[in-house]
Each structure stands twice: as structure tokens, then as C-alpha cells.
């Protein structure tokens, strides 16, 4: 029996038969590989915080602070202890030198000679201890710029008060004690402010390199007498001045090399440590190495500025003792400025050369790793 048009049977046969959506039942890439969304759908990573976002979805790194959060300075506690120990050693050494001298004019002259070592040690100690403080603050998740800077200055001020108290308590009560105490406290506070910079690994590299440079300069003093003989120091004043100039340049050159190598080594250590914690952490670029290598020289020049402002009265007292003392103070000030400039440029150049030597092998490794992927894509 044929179905006539217009009948109910014909109408039923003309309607399309619904077909099940096979594509909806097929698992997609996300279903096959597992969903990247957390259970509550509030973030871009899994609920355990190991993906590209923390469990609460409020940051760009994991919840434990080891992701792409603020970079931390490795070894900050050790740097703080070493810098504080070096400051204590310099304060004790200066006290022994002043107390061993006859009271009066000789004590003033020796205080002026010892002031640069104390101020540079206080500057580095303030920066190192403040770096440790802001590092603890960053680990607790508080890394706002204003809070970090205030915490750095406050931590440096603690070192300043402790150093000033120790000087006033143990040094002889004379005109030079208050000048040394006040200038040392100012240097420690300024050092704390330097540590408030957000680039903690670079600050750590500067502190480590500066501390190593200061220790090297003190150790180098044992080699000055043999070098004087090597550079032809004789009985004439001209030969002594020429030898002293070459000894000073040799010391500055070697100190710059030490500063640049230490800065490069610290930043390399910080980069590798950050890569172990988070493979996506950005590596320091060449400006970081340049600044870290130049940092110790900048701190030495900053030390000279602090001495000429805060310790001006002590330097004037020492220079007024005699014409020879005035010439000596002027010569020493010029020598310190030249030394800071040499350390700045040699340190920056050394760090840059050391960093540049790492670029060639790294680029070759990247090309070797890319070749298998390109061949596989062609297939």
C-alpha cells in the first residue's frame, strides 16, 4: 500500500531521523589528557598548586613561594653573619690601634687612618643584614615596594645603633669617638637602604663581592713590602712615590678581578638555584652582571662620600697636626677614590666577560635540542 501525500504516515516518513552526536561523545584533547582546571574552577592550574597558578588563583606562582614570585637572595643569612663579623673585627682592630697609641695627637691621626675601613665594613654590614631582613619578609609573602624599603632601612638602623653603642662603650671618651660612632651609624643605615632594591640577587651579589674585596685588601697588605722592593723602591722620595703608585694600581686591579669574579659566581649560583625551584624562572640578563660587578666599586666610592661628609671634622683635625699629615690625608683620599674607580670598572668588565663566555655554549645546546623536534615535525 502506497503512502499518499498528506497522510500521517507520509508526514512521519518525511521527518529527518535524529542522529546521535558522535563528536560530543568523543573525548577531546582536554578529556584525554586530564583537565587542567582545578576542582572549584577558580584558577588556571590544578587544585594542589603545582600548575601555572596557585590554588587560590591570586598569583603567578605556586602557593609555596617557589614559583615566579619575587626573586630571593641565596645565602642571605650567611652573608649577614659574615658581614657583621667583619664589622666587629674592624671595630675591635681600630680600638686596639687607637688605645695602643699615645693619647692626644697620635690617636687622632690613627683614628683618621682607620676610619675608611670601619665605614666600608659598616656599609656592607648594614646592606647584608637588611638583605636578610627583607628576604625573610619576601618569604612570608609581603613584597610590596614601600614595605620592603621601610623594612630595609629599619634593619640597617638596628646595625647602626648596635655599632654606635659598641663604639661609645668600648672606645676612649675623646673627640674622635663621637665622630667615628656617628659616621659608622650613618654608613650602616645607608647600607640598609641599598638593600631595599627589589632585585635581591643583584644586591646579594654586590654584598658578597664587596665583602670579598674588603677581605682581600686587608690580606693584600702583607704583600705590600715585597711589592715595593719589586717595583724599585729605594732611598729617594721619587722612587718611593713611583713604587707606591704601582703597588696601589696592582692592588686595585686585583681587587677588581676579585669583585667581578665573586659577583659573577654569586649570580650564577642564584640563577641555578632559581632554576631548580622553578624551571620557568627568568635568568638574569647582562645588565644584572654589569651592575653586580661594578657594585663593590660603587660602595667604595659611596664610602668616600660618607667619610668626607660625616668624618670631615676628624679629617680636618688629623690634617691640622702638621704639614706632613695634611699631605698624607690628601694623598690617601685621592688614592681611595682612584681605587674605587679601578674596582668599579675592572669588576664590571670582569663580570661581563665571565658572563659572555657562558653565552656561546648555551646557544649551541639550545640549537642541538631544537633539531630533533624540527625533524619530527617534518616527518
TrEMBL record:
Keyword Metal-binding: no
Domain of life: Bacteria
Gly residues composition bias: residue spans: 42-68
Disulfide bond as UniProt keyword: no
Ranges for region Disordered: 1-70
Residue ranges that the Swiss-Prot or TrEMBL entry lists as coiled coil: none
Positions of transmembrane segments: 71-92, 112-137, 149-169, 175-195, 202-221, 252-269, 289-309, 340-359
Keyword annotations of the record: Membrane, Transmembrane, Transmembrane helix
Name this protein carries in UniProt: Uncharacterized protein
Organism field: Micromonospora citrea
Taxonomy of the source species: Bacteria, Bacillati, Actinomycetota, Actinomycetes, Micromonosporales
Amino acid at each position: 500500500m502506497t503512502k499518499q501525500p498528506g497522510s500521517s504516515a507520509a508526514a512521519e516518513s518525511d521527518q529527518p531521523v535524529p542522529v546521535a552526536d558522535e563528536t560530543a561523545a568523543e573525548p577531546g584533547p582536554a578529556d584525554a589528557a586530564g583537565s587542567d582546571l582545578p576542582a572549584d574552577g577558580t584558577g588556571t592550574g590544578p587544585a594542589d598548586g603545582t600548575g601555572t597558578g596557585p590554588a587560590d588563583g591570586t598569583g603567578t606562582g605556586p602557593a609555596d613561594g617557589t614559583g615566579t614570585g619575587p626573586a630571593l637572595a641565596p645565602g642571605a643569612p650567611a652573608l649577614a653573619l659574615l658581614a657583621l663579623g667583619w664589622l666587629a673585627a674592624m671595630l675591635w682592630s681600630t680600638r686596639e690601634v687607637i688605645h695602643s697609641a699615645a693619647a692626644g695627637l697620635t690617636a687622632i691621626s690613627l683614628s683618621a687612618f682607620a676610619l675608611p675601613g670601619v665605614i666600608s665594613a659598616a656599609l656592607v654590614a648594614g646592606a647584608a643584614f637588611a638583605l636578610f631582613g627583607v628576604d625573610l619578609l619576601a618569604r612570608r609573602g609581603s613584597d610590596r615596594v614601600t614595605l620592603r624599603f621601610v623594612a630595609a632601612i629599619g634593619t640597617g638602623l638596628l646595625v647602626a645603633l648596635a655599632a654606635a653603642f659598641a663604639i661609645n662603650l668600648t672606645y676612649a671618651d675623646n673627640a674622635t669617638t663621637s665622630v667615628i660612632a656617628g659616621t659608622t651609624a650613618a654608613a650602616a643605615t645607608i647600607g640598609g637602604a641599598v638593600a631595599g632594591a627589589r632585585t635581591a640577587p643583584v644586591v646579594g651579589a654586590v654584598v658578597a663581592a664587596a665583602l670579598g674585596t674588603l677581605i682581600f685588601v686587608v690580606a693584600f697588605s702583607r704583600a705590600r713590602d715585597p711589592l715595593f722592593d719589586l717595583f724599585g723602591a729605594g732611598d729617594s722620595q721619587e722612587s718611593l712615590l713611583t713604587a707606591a703608585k704601582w703597588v696601589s694600581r696592582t692592588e686595585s686591579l686585583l681587587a677588581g678581578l676579585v669583585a667581578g669574579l665573586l659577583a659573577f659566581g654569586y649570580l650564577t649560583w642564584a640563577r641555578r638555584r632559581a632554576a631548580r625551584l622553578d624551571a620557568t624562572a627568568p635568568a638574569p640578563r647582562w645588565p644584572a652582571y654589569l651592575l653586580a660587578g661594578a657594585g663593590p666599586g660603587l660602595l667604595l666610592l659611596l664610602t668616600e662620600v660618607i667619610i668626607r661628609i660625616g668624618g670631615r671634622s676628624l679629617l680636618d683635625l688629623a690634617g691640622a697636626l702638621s704639614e706632613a699629615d695634611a699631605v698624607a690625608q690628601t694623598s690617601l683620599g685621592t688614592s681611595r677614590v682612584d681605587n674605587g674607580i679601578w674596582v668599579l670598572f675592572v669588576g664590571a668588565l670582569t663580570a661581563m666577560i665571565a658572563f659572555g663566555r657562558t653565552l656561546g655554549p648555551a646557544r649551541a645546546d639550545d640549537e642541538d635540542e631544537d633539531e630533533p623536534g624540527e625533524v619530527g615535525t617534518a616527518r
